[in-house]
């Protein structure tokens, strides 16, 4: 580095390349953990850059050489591509490091190829630099080149075959985890292909991975949810793993969207690094031989270190006590000593005595603080024994209990230029705690404003904001803040005028401004810990954790405010969650270090955590305890600090302020709901004529597709409108994701086409490639579908595949059909995976299908093609030249196998009924269709929330059966309705019902106030079904009874509002009780005097009816005290108004009572409790008997109708 810096000063034209190189290398060196393969790749870059040091041998770089070009001109032409290669290398390394271990292992071949490509570029650049230098150099350069070669013999030899180098690197530099995975795969007969196809083995693979530093479960044991783009082993599922393995390297690089901002921030930081040593007076340290103290830069520390005779390090407590003595007592002691000397020598008669006195006074003055001034007198009061703990923490960065000379110099060098050392020490002994308390209230103010802004957000943004509030990272912030001690002591502080705080505020605000500037540089996205180092600098996280939390939450507030007018992208707030997660990683590492030190020193960890950093680490990763923090209302804290204006932008390197003021735009920009993109429905013509040209595909086709590990999304329908003599086909159709167009080619019996959706999905265009085999009679097509940006192909058994060299890439099999592929890339032929289809079996299946179609009409829709190997695919498809109504009406294959004639009649009857029903309307038909739509919407919403697992078998079976009977046009509309509702659903994520264990609770959550007052997380919660059934619940030592007061939530709430809500609830119940008593008293008086007029008492705010006794609800949100009757609240629950809202309702206090308001129950004295087990059993038996009777009656009616229809068909055919 130093050699390149000197070279850059001598030859400025290479300085930009040196800066880029230092930024790329520093980015990797600052990473917490480095993969050895990445280090090896960076060594090839270093080897290339070292070649530039040969420029030292060139006397005149501007002297023209062969061809009239100077060496400077030649290198300038080459430096552009060198810079691009360095940036490319940094991005490749950064993207590779982020891959989970399992993904790295399964995709090692792909990454080996990419590493080889980058390393080859560096080898080429090195050879080019050497060539440019050699043709301009004298004999001396040859000698220097030989020397350089001798210094890196191994690399020089291996660069002759970079591919071999990377092969050796990826083979020998595997991590222990990768070696374990390799051993696991080696046990399977099919190798990687077999493992990727086996869910159980993949679960075992993921189980072997390290869980990571963060908490992988929330306080209730629920698995943490990964945010979009998060690929951590701790949250990776089998589906996620397959999806990540399936990605091409170029796609992974393209997905690393924020790297460029991160790299630029690193480059700016490297360019701005200047070693500034503060020389007090004109003292120059000429040598270090006089003692360790000579390396101390600050003069005060220098004197203390020298007087105490310390060596290279000292106990932190001893240093702090010495500094206290130096400042707090030194000046006063010096004055007292001088007074004694002057009193003794006051006669002044003896010149020798006077001279001795002057020498003694000079010696005392030299040991006293030469910079002591009246302006610093205030600081001395804070350098006391009672305040030394924060100063010890600031000096002892590594928590070793010892302070080294380097740490001492770093401490003094960090102080603001205009501050004296006493001022700096006073900041850490007193001002730092003030700063923490100030940020505590500002963070709570942001929480309060986010809560208020959420009320006015568009309904379409409800789930996005709710997911953010319920995320474990946001909950971690609350846990973290709950440990802060002595909060109440600072409640009376006026943060705008407090004299002491104003002495530190400028420095605090300046630090926040720098952090904000750095975060804007990376678009508020901390993708890993080295990005956190770029933004916040190195050192202990206590210095930046509070301002970082505040800035990230303030950015979240801006996004929530934007949600008032625009529809947010589903991942808009996920970036903030991810940045907070990276911050928790840094805190986790710090806490683990502290615990290790406490254990080593045999100290009580819990007690030490209460002392360290003002107690903020006490519950950072421990179960929070009920305390005053949870009872404080954030709205009260919000009133203690002023508004939250954005910090002014920091000046850029050229001295100007950033051109863009205020907040940055949204990460993903506004989006449009799927339901708003629906175009006028256009249905394919199922009666299109069968083509007369042999093997022509023109006509109507329908069928289905499936994923490799689950059922598909329903039936598909499209029409091939053109098929020319060259085999090109063009068509259009629709499926669950909307209308699409197809274009492709038919080569013999091989069909390849691209399916391109006309409507964007998640804001991006989506395309898929289909490859299949057309049956001999051109009546059916079977094959595979997959991404367009991976070059996979279909190979039929019985055919000789083309001979190819090189190894196949590792493969994966599943990616969600909703994941768009933005880039089209082509992999080398050597890496094209093969998708095999058994031709004989396929032909046999085709014969069966044809037989069924021609003779009895049995459907093969959705039948999987056998004989597959794992590749870059997503599933199978089947198409038949039949109208989609045929597939909808066709009974399952099991019915054909059981009773073929009856199944054929059922097919004909179903088709006839559908034709008749399509021309008539009846309430029964509309009701059945509505029920089918509701069933589809509910199942799709469950499917969207997460992959179905073993416990969801019934849902999966119900889904598979349901989608077979829905027209593709309906599928698309209903899917849009489901997504519309999903955005508006009130989902209390991470909360489960304590009675039935349902999770998550949706849409209404009931929290028992009586059973939850002493809990932070373990509240007693019920779902609407269990609350309505008046269920008793016993958990641990708590017993919930239906007569308890219950809080009703229909919106997501921050946990810090729970206990303040309880307090308001108690007040409202007291008010309602007083109103009832007053009403009863007035009624008695009115009855006596005969006057029944008046409307005083308790009335339902919705229906205005009088409430004379419990049960009823009290509203905790309405501006005026109000009550709600049970009937009106139940009606709101049934109508589910929140699922259909397009705009916002009136904010709190400005409109009438609505569904979202929080309520507290006043239950009646006698509540019907839940049935006993025997009563339940008897009731269930009676219900089963009634259902069986109804089914028997329905079967008789159905048989009669079938017989009548058969007679009708016979009569029609007889004509």
What labels would you give this structure?
22 strands, 8-stranded antiparallel beta barrel, 6-stranded antiparallel sheet, alpha+beta, 1215 residues, 6 domains
Description of the molecule:
The protein is built from 43 helices and 22 strands. By secondary structure, the protein is of the alpha+beta class. It has an eight-stranded antiparallel β-barrel with strand order 3-4-5-6-7-8-9-12. It has a six-stranded antiparallel sheet with strand order 14-13-17-22-20-21. It has a two-stranded antiparallel ribbon with strand order 1-2. It folds into six domains: 222 residues, no CATH class; 137 residues, no CATH class; 223 residues, no CATH class; 168 residues, Lipocalin (Beta Barrel); 148 residues, no CATH class; 36 residues. The radius of gyration is 38 Å and the shape is flat. It comes from Lentinus tigrinus ALCF2SS1-6. Keywords: Metal-binding, Zinc, Zinc-finger. One of its GO terms (molecular function) is zinc ion binding. InterPro entries: Znf_ZZ, Znf_ZZ_sf.
Query: How far from one another are the termini?
Result: 97 Å
Percentage beta strand = 5-15%
Number of helices: 43
Rg, please?
A: 38 Å
Structural class label: alpha+beta
Number of strands: 22
What is the 3D form?
flat
Q: In the residues, how many domains can be counted? A: 6
Set out the fold topology.
Elements: H1 2-10, H2 15-29, H3 36-50, H4 71-98, H5 101-106, H6 108-134, H7 139-151, H8 153-158, H9 162-172, H10 176-186, H11 191-197, H12 199-208, H13 238-246, H14 249-255, H15 259-272, H16 299-308, E1 313-315, H17 316-344, H18 351-367, H19 377-380, H20 388-395, E2 402-404, H21 405-413, H22 421-455, H23 462-470, H24 472-481, H25 499-521, H26 529-536, H27 545-562, H28 574-600, H29 605-611, H30 628-631, H31 634-638, E3 699-707, E4 715-723, E5 728-735, E6 738-747, E7 750-757, E8 767-774, E9 780-787, E10 793-797, E11 834-838, H32 839-856, E12 875-880, H33 884-889, H34 893-898, H35 900-919, H36 923-945, H37 953-962, H38 968-984, E13 1005-1008, H39 1009-1012, E14 1021-1022, H40 1024-1028, E15 1033-1035, E16 1038-1040, E17 1046-1049, H41 1058-1089, E18 1098-1099, E19 1106-1107, E20 1112-1115, E21 1122-1124, H42 1126-1135, E22 1159-1162, H43 1173-1214
Parallel strand pairs: 10-11
Antiparallel strand pairs: 1-2, 3-4, 3-12, 4-5, 5-6, 6-7, 7-8, 8-9, 9-12, 13-14, 13-17, 15-16, 17-22, 18-19, 20-21, 20-22
Helix pairs in contact: 2-3, 2-4, 2-15, 3-4, 3-6, 4-6, 6-9, 16-17, 17-18, 17-20, 20-22, 22-25, 22-27, 27-28, 36-37, 36-38
